[in-house]
Specification:
Elements (H helix, E strand, L loop, with lengths): L1 H7 L6 H22 L2 H8 L5 H9 L11 H19 L1 H28 L2 H21 L2 H4 L4 H43 L1 H48 L1 H6 L3 H27 L1 H25 L7 H42 L20 E9 L10 E9 L3 E6 L5 H6 L9 E6 L2 E2 L5 H6 L1 E5 L9 H5 L8 H10 L3 H5 L18 H15 L3 E5 L7 H15 L3 E5 L11 E6 L2 E6 L1 H7 L2 H11 L1
Parallel strand pairs: 3-8, 3-9, 6-7, 7-8
Antiparallel strand pairs: 1-2, 1-4, 4-5, 9-10
Helix pairs in contact: 1-14, 2-6, 2-9, 3-5, 3-14, 4-5, 5-6, 7-9, 9-10, 9-14, 10-12, 10-13, 10-14, 13-14, 18-20, 20-21
């Protein structure tokens, strides 16, 4: 039940449509039951064809019936009286025509209300899917970068697509299961009790037994469904990783290995889904077979009641009982099918909840302060960081660093020494495990995330571009930017010339991750984006390390223009690019081991001198 409530919580915003759906379904059920009553006068009309018997029949039957004497037998006799009287007055053919017309009208109303119920289900189904996707996507944007180091992107995509679609179907079935089917069962069972309590006793005894058997199978279905979702997530991940690394796959002749791994995973998924479908498809034939046993029992004992001397059940009422009971079978089967589907949906809901319920560790304080300018300095105070608290391998340990406004600070060191972690904490991609970072004396945790990040421009080694136009990539994340401003930023970044050589200039689509551009062109576009933002603090994370000599010269020239009159933090592997930095921070094994200008560090004959000599030798 708890799992089902997880699904139904998404319907809260669509209560109006849900209420209308329930109302129209109730009306549909009422007219459905009413349409079945047409079988009684039809039987009476067909099996009482001798006109001489009509007058005798009228003498035996009561013309009226009181509420206090309401019973199936009295109701049948009352109906028979008025049908017989109508036949005497208007003829049997006229009554048959009336029955047919009333039947058509009742069925028309029944189906009209059924359509209206489905009509108001559509905004619930689509709205719920929209809300779930929006919630997952918003949570994906809120979660810290550390979350994605333990998750596969393909699996997250699988949860946003296949799992959400599974929930959509489960939502629809859940509403049917909790409203329409139980109402239909209650109404029809009420009619069965009214007609014959003795026969209905067997229904109450036998149907729960079938329900328990079906529930046992449904539990194993949920386990198989959960396994299938996890396997689909791995398939998505393999597809995403293969598409992203196709160049490497081909370069290392790894097509066969990649293909074999994918086929193996896909085969495993297929075997699991075979089990899921077989268990799901078992619901209908199993419930039908078990119901047929109940029907056989009812037919046997019902026939004995009709033949008994007490005449507690007439032949017409017994036929009507069987007709009503036959209408009880579809909602019972639908209830079974819905239960199976909901169990499948539970697996998807749990996978979706793993994202939605994940802890957002980077949060703003209540009443956080907005900072609009950078005036003095950035300071790291005894900052330590481990990706998991208590981890013996610290990424940073007891870092103390001041970055005055307008200065260029370079950070160098071996891979894994903590350089990127140090700068990633400044825009609060991560928070220190111990210690604190301040801007103009204000702790970062006291400031709003938006205002912190508005002060900073970031250019990374891997240029992050989107499948959009040149203009939209340069103006990414900024509002009310004119084309002239974009062009001016591109000129400063030495990007205008190659952009104008493109087919549609600034309106050219650059492909997935900027695949239509060279590395140097992508990097200059990233710099143009940073120039357009015009931040007071600039973070350059190995912005030129992956470029050829000519591209590096153009990018370095653009960076020089970008860094002018700004506070810059530069991570660099090529030490020749940071000779003019105001201070160079040398890191090794999570610690700052040296600091000073280029000239000062060369005289110390320490780590920096060794790194510089190695690069000079090369």
């Amino acid at each position: 039940m708890k799992g089902l409530l997880k699904i139904l919580r998404y319907i809260k915003g669509y209560k109006r449509f849900a209420v209308l759906n329930v109302i129209f379904n109730i009306l549909q059920l009422v007219f459905s039951l009413f349409s079945l009553t047409m079988v009684i006068p039809l039987i009476q009309l067909l099996f009482n064809t001798d006109p001489a018997e009509y007058a005798e029949t009228l003498k035996k039957l009561p013309p009226e019936i009181s509420i206090g004497h309401l019973s199936p037998k009295n109701l049948t006799e009352y109906l028979k009286y008025h049908i017989t009287q109508s036949i005497v007055n208007g003829g049997a053919e006229r009554i048959l025509l009336t029955i047919c017309i009333v039947f058509v009208i009742v069925v028309l109303l029944k189906n009209l209300f059924r359509y209206l119920a489905i009509f108001y289900m559509a905004p619930i189904r689509n709205g719920v899917v929209k809300d779930i996707r929006n919630e997952i996507f918003s949570k994906v944007l809120e979660l810290p970068l550390s979350y994605y180091s333990d998750e596969r992107k393909g699996d997250i995509m699988s949860r946003m697509t296949t799992d959400v679609q599974e929930v959509e179907w489960s939502i629809m079935q859940s509403i049917e299961m909790l409203t329409v089917n139980p109402l239909q069962i209650i109404i029809f069972v009420g009619a069965l009790i009214f007609i014959s309590p003795q026969l209905t006793f067997f229904v109450f005894v036998l149907l729960p037994v079938t329900g328990l058997l079906i529930a046992r199978i449904a539990k194993s279905l949920k386990r198989s469904s959960t396994k299938s979702k996890e396997q689909m997530g791995r398939i998505f991940s393999m597809m995403e990783e293969t598409l992203s690394g196709l160049r490497i796959v081909k370069a290392f002749n790894a097509e066969n290995i990649t293909r074999t791994n994918f086929i193996e995973e896909n085969n495993n998924y297929t075997h699991t889904m075979n089990r899921v479908y077989r268990k799901t498809d078992l619901a209908s034939p199993l419930s039908e077979f078990l119901t047929s046993i109940v029907i056989a029992v009812i037919m046997y004992f019902g026939g004995k009641l009709v033949w008994s001397s007490a005449h507690t059940l007439s032949g017409e009422l017994f036929v009507y009982y069987l007709v009503v009971f036959s209408q009880l079978i579809p909602p019972a089967k639908a209830f079974t099918q819905a239960y199976y589907t909901v169990q499948k949906g539970m697996a998807s809901v749990e996978r979706i909840d793993k994202i939605i319920q994940s802890e957002v560790t980077i949060r703003e304080k209540e009443n956080a302060i907005t900072i609009n300018s950078f005036d003095k300095e950035i300071e790291y105070k005894n900052v330590s960081f481990a990706y998991q608290r208590g981890d013996n391998g610290w990424a940073l340990k007891d870092v103390n660093l001041k970055i005055p406004k307008g200065k260029t600070i370079a950070i160098v060191g071996q891979s894994g020494s903590g350089k990127s972690t140090l700068v990633d904490m400044l825009p609060r991609f991560y928070d220190p495990t111990d210690g604190e970072i301040t801007i103009d004396g204000k702790p970062l945790k006291d400031l709003t995330l938006t205002s912190i990040r508005n002060l900073m421009g970031i250019v990374t080694q891997e240029s992050i571009l989107f499948n959009d136009t040149v203009k939209n990539n340069i103006a990414f994340g900024m509002k009310n930017i004119t084309t002239e401003q974009v062009i001016e930023a591109a000129k400063v970044a030495n990007a205008h010339d190659f952009i104008m050589r493109m087919e549609n200039g600034y309106e050219t689509n650059i492909g997935d991750r900027g695949s239509k551009l060279s590395g140097g062109e992508r990097q200059r576009m990233s710099i143009a984006r940073a120039i357009l933002k015009n931040p007071p603090v600039l973070i350059l994370d190995e912005a030129t390390s992956a470029l050829d000599t000519e591209s590096e010269r153009l990018v370095q020239d653009a960076l020089t223009k970008l860094m002018a009159h700004r506070t810059s933090i530069v991570i660099a592997h090529r030490l020749s690019t940071i000779k003019n930095a105001d201070e160079i921070i040398v890191m090794q094994k999570s610690l700052i081991v040296e600091r000073g200008t280029h000239a000062e560090l060369l005289t110390h004959n320490g780590t920096y001198k060794k790194l510089y000599d190695l690069q000079s030798f090369v």
